[in-house]
Amino acid sequence: MNAEILRRRVSGAVITALEPAFGADHDALVWNGRKPAHRAGLIVRAASVADVQEAVRFAAANGLTVSPRGGGHHFTGVATRADMVIDLGALNGLRIDATARKARAEPGVTNLQMATALDRKGLAFPLGHCGSVPMSGYLLGGGVGWNGGAWGMACGLVTSAEVVLADGRLVTVSATENPEIFWAVRGAGPGFFGVVTAWHLDLKLAPAVIETVVRVYPGKMADEVASWAETVMAKAPTAVEFTAKVAAGPAGPIIAVIATVFADSAEAARMVHADLALGAPPALDQIGPMQSPLAGLYMATDPSVPAGRRYRADSVWSDGSLGQILGHVVEGMARAPSAETFAVLTLAPNAVPLPADAAFSCGGRIFGAIYALWADAAEDPRNSAWLHGLIAEIAPLATGAYVGLCDLDRPGGHLPTHSEAASLRLAALSRRFDPAGVFASAPAAVVQAAE
Q: Which of 39, 87, 343, 397 is the most exposed place for a label (fewest CB within 10 A)?
């Protein structure tokens, strides 16, 4: 393999493991402060779609595996599980057609970048809850985002995508053009057999008001909180995001119940919040109501996930009762080794159905995400064991895990990220469109879970 050949063919940078700065450049590929053990041997910082094509062709000709990297936010470090990493961070163009309510977003466009642009035009999209996460892995994994109860999974609003396949061809995929690849691109996650270089999206009209109320409870009130939540959310409109955030507190776990209403007017938002307050247990504190544009919501969520911390994270979908899962999480949080660790449980019993005919195929009335984060590498074993133990306790209540937030390295295997039928179809499509296994570094870990 002669990397100089590739350097002459691309306009972006090519960095090999022989270069002095390679270690630092490689670590920077992964947002998590806990870097993966596997190290790629070659990094291509693509400056154009043509660079992506040349890099894929070079890899195929030299028997190398390839991993696309958007923002490196998957907590298991899948971006580096290959011989070559194609860094897509520089592909961050965004074009919005406000009249048609359409957007073309390149893989490096972040949630915050897109939210800010949409706010200016009175439009919206179910963007993810972390501002620095780009469209690349977020949409490929399905997209659990803001106001998902009403707007659905983000991948359900993907109308087409531009994809570089294992042979270097650039193709457009949609419901009518390369429909099998289009099926896979909406939810395959790290198991996708290509590189998405642009997404074409349907947009929503922005709500006139986004209003949030937070009520804080001691962990010992988990049963009362869950009973109230189940009662009010059974009758709530779909445009209510109702989340219980569980974190450590000086006197034990704390539950912050966060109700965000996406409404057509301030009066409508107040009426929904009044209905949600019926039967609410007495709280230690109440914050709000607070109004914010879509981009402003990241001021509340991003401080919980600071860059540079060491992370392990996992997720669950469940059709069980909120009380059972919340009880497990509160009990688990009391044992958490790190005071920074937290979990979120979102209850959406009236949510719109999953997108039809898409690889995304796991869901539930409850979505739970657990984030273990700490600073000292010596604490890795304790925090990892804690997370895996808590997931094992919840697993009997789960229908699966979210592929975008799943610990693929969990000892003994992780929860299914796709239905059995979807997993088998993904494996078959991968063999068809990537017979040489150019993108085979990550898919096995995902597909294996549901077999």
A: 39
